[in-house]
């Protein structure tokens, strides 16, 4: 009787161990299956992202609008931005275009905005305006004081100016309204009894005498000339404000 019980209990234990072993194998298979599924889904996700990325890179710029330029042409700005051939919009993000543009001396800042699902590019520039051509150095001086090659429709400074006077002159010229700047033809500097004077030839036939201390008076040049009428002569702005007729 005892031997019979022992044999029965051994069979029960063995069957329990067998079931446990089968369950362990089953769980391992399930884990392996889940792992393979995760790997497959991960690879599928990567593949989908690659396809989407490739499709996005094929989206090209279709329209370009330039705003705020006066001295640089639209085509020059487009070339500086590197988008002449209407390339991929996503290969040319806004910050990269802005960086390229701001590397040019004549662009103080640039802002790029994209629209129409990134296919339209709007570029707004703030130009570093040319102020005058510095004849002794054969350079054009820009608003920030930098000097570049090339000539523009700006007045010519005929002679050198002492450095301390030059810095004030540069600030004064930067404040000249554009419509007045266009009327200035030539500028000559002359020191007289400790006073810094400028003789300016205007392209309307009037000559302006002005000092560094009264230079801002020329900002109102158009208003002053409108009161003078068709009279020509030397407009004295260094002391007072009057026109000296030129004797023929």
Q: Specify the CATH class of the largest domain.
A: Alpha Beta
Radius of gyration: 39 Å
CATH architecture of the largest domain: 3-Layer(aba) Sandwich
How large is the share of residues in beta strands? 25-35%
Which bin fits the share of residues in helices? Answer: 25-40%
Outline, from the CA principal axes?
rod-shaped
- CATH topology description of the largest domain: Rossmann fold
Separation of the first and last Cα atoms = 152 Å
* Overall pLDDT: 87
**Which structural class matches the secondary elements?**
alpha/beta
- How many extended strands? 12
Biggest sheet strand order reads 6-5-4-7-8-9-10-11-12
Q: What summary fits the major beta sheet?
A: 9 strands, mixed
Low-confidence stretches: none
Mind explaining what this structure looks like?
The protein has helices at residues 2-57, 74-81, 94-102, 163-174, 178-181, 221-228; strands at residues 63-67, 107-115, 120-127, 130-134, 139-142, 147-148, 156-157, 184-192, 195-202, 207-211, 233-236, 242-245. By secondary structure, it is α/β, with parallel strands linked by helices. The protein has three domains: 1-58; 63-127, Roll (Ubiquitin-like (UB roll)), CATH 3.10.20; 130-245, Rossmann fold. The strands form two sheets. It has a nine-stranded mixed beta sheet with strand order 6-5-4-7-8-9-10-11-12, covered by helices on one side. The radius of gyration is 39 Å and the shape is rod-shaped. The mean pLDDT is 87.
């Amino acid at each position: 009787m005892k031997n019979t019980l022992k044999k029965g209990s051994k069979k029960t234990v063995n069957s329990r161990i067998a079931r446990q072993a089968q369950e362990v194998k089953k769980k391992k298979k399930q884990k392996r299956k889940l792992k393979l599924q995760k790997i497959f889904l991960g690879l599928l996700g990567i593949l989908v992202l690659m396809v989407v990325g490739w499709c996005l890179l094929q989206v090209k710029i279709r329209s370009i609008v330039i705003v705020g330029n006066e001295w640089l042409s639209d085509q020059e700005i487009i070339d500086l931005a590197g988008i002449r051939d209407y390339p991929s919009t996503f290969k040319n993000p806004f910050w990269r275009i802005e960086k390229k543009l701001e590397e040019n001396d004549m662009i103080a800042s640039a802002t790029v905005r994209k629209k129409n699902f990134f296919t339209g590019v709007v570029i707004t520039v703030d130009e570093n305006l040319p102020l005058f051509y510095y004849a002794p150095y054969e350079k054009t001086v820009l608003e920030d004081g930098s000097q570049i090659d090339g000539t523009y429709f700006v007045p010519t400074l005929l002679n050198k100016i002492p450095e301390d006077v030059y810095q004030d002159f540069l600030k004064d010229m930067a404040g000249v309204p554009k419509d007045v700047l266009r009327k200035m033809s030539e500028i000559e500097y002359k020191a007289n009894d400790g006073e810094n004077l400028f003789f300016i030839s205007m392209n309307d036939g009037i000559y302006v005498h002005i000092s560094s201390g009264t230079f801002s008076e020329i900002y109102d040049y158009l208003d002053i000339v409108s009161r003078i009428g068709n009279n020509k002569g030397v407009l004295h702005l260094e002391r007072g404000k009057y026109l000296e007729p030129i004797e023929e």
